[in-house]
Amino acid sequence: MSKFWIRVLAGVIAAIVAVVIGVSITGNLDVTADPDTGLVAGANTIALVIAIALLIGLVVYAAAEYAQTGGIESIARQFDTRTIVLIPIAIAINIVLGQTVGQALKVPIYLDSIGTILVGALAGPIPGLLTGLFANLIWTFVLAGTPFGSPYAWPYAIVAAEIGLLAGVFGYLGFFRSRPNTPTRELVVGAVVAIGVLAALAIWGILPAYTNGVTFFGDTSSVDPIFIVVAWLIAAILVVAMVALLLQLFLRRNLGVAYIVVGGAICGVISAILSAPISAYGFGGVTGGGTDVLVAAFQQAGSSLTESVLQQGLISDPIDKTITYIIVFVLLQSLSRRFVARFPQGERAIGTIGTMED
To answer: What is the pLDDT of residues 35-44, one digit of tens each?
Structure first.
């Protein structure tokens, strides 16, 4: 095992141990729901424990690297000036798009992690993790009382952090890399996989949602006009992204499409598993978004609350993260290669393979 994976393992173990100790120290959680938001008081405690555990894991990783190399270069090099400038922009993108989906749209997706995944792909796992974590903290605590504030964001900070971390890992592994002019045999296999995953997500998740009364726009009579404008922008982005994806696959013969679709689906499944207990025990399955329709439908079909939330997550999250990965992939292909390459992990994003130092 390389030095890099040794320190990763040390950090993961430290974080898990911290969660176990934190949960045991907190004891019985307060399950009383806030009458205004529906948020269970104990959800904040669990979110705080997990956030502290993440910090402890990062500190242990840094300590292990310092013991190995006498420095923390693998962390420091992920935070150049461009990354530091990009992070607040990415946080703003997350909040604006996520709040619009929650306010004006009634589709069973979120679109609140585009900025997080972009930072992870370009800069690395740790900037991606921090972008997701800070976005949800700002969303709840800094923007409270404004049209862009949401009491539901903070408990999902751990999920947002996981999304950024995984995007950084996938970026390092080259999932966001363009692979044009792929030989026919490999392209056919990749196209079958990509189209199969997209078709399965559409048939399993999107079509049933719409046949059960879900609409792209909800009741917008009391919605701030700014969210209506952004909602139409989101619709346009989705259409452009899907068209660009098909062009990349069939005209440029870009096998990278298959990687990005599979990566998004994997991220979605992991996010669903992490977010299900938060939704079930923190909010009673109701968060005010388009996904609530699916939770109610599963409960009416006989599933328990926990089962219903997990079933909803396994539909919504893979769809949402696959769409988000597609948008980020298309965005990276449209940006200047010179600009992208200047980010810490940018060379991998545009196809120049490097090597992570031990």
So the answer is: 555 555 666 6
In terms of Cβ atoms closer than 10 Å to its own Cβ (0-12, 13-18, 19+), residue 239 is exposed
Q: Is a pLDDT exceeding 50 seen at residue 333?
A: yes
Asked if residue 69 is part of any domain, the answer here is no
Burial class (CB in 10 A: 0-12, 13-18, 19+), 135: buried
With tokens 């940006």, the residue in question is 335
Structural domain count, the chain: 1
Which residues contact residue 126 at a Cβ distance below 8 angstroms, ignoring those fewer than 6 apart? 58, 75, 78, 79, 165, 168
What's the rounded Cα separation, in Å, for the pair 67 and 39?
Answer: 42
Helix (H, G, I), strand (E, B) or coil at 33: strand
Using a 10 angstrom Cβ sphere, with 0-12 exposed, 13-18 middle and 19 or more buried, the burial of residue 57 is buried
pLDDT in tens, 161-188: 999 999 999 998 889 998 888 898 888 8
237 located within any domain: yes
Q: Which two tokens stand for residue 59?
A: 């500190």
Measuring CA to CA, how many Å separate 92 from each of 85, 136, 323? 12, 11, 19
Closest CA to 260 of 215, 324, 213: 324
Name, in order, each residue with C-beta under 8 angstroms of 70's C-beta and a sequence gap of 6 or more.
none
- Residue showing tokens 């399955």: 285
Query: What is the domain range of residue 235?
Result: 77-350
Q: Is 182 contained in some domain?
A: yes
Residue 94 corresponds to which tokens in the numbers above?
A: 């997350």
Give domain status of residue 29, yes or no. no
Query: Any idea of the CA torsion for 188, 192, 194, 196, to the nearest 10 degrees?
Result: 170
